[in-house]
Amino acid sequence: MFRNPEGGIIGANRTMPFRQRTGEGPVDPIIEELRSVATWEMILAGVVAVLVTMWFMPGIRESMKRNKENADQPKDWRGLLFPMVFVVLFVLLLISMV
Known about the structure:
The chain contains four helices and two strands; from the N terminus they run E-E-H-H-H-H. The protein has helices at about 20, 30-35, 40-70, 75-95, and strands at about 1-5, 10. Strands 1-2 form a two-stranded antiparallel ribbon.
């Protein structure tokens, strides 16, 4: 692990300053609230995730069947790669601005 000029340690948890990880100094109330997630909230989030997955499953199966039927059609890779290149360039632009 390396020390960061702002006082944090670059390592497993780079987002939290060193004094918050060690218990020294004030702790951000948002981080404290995230740590105190109740058990019922975690169970509810898991149930919602399973229900959403089950809700989309018929459409996913139908899409996979159509994909197998249209396997001989030419693929449209330009339609996939063109937007992805612009997203990557935009993210690199945002990173370079920081």
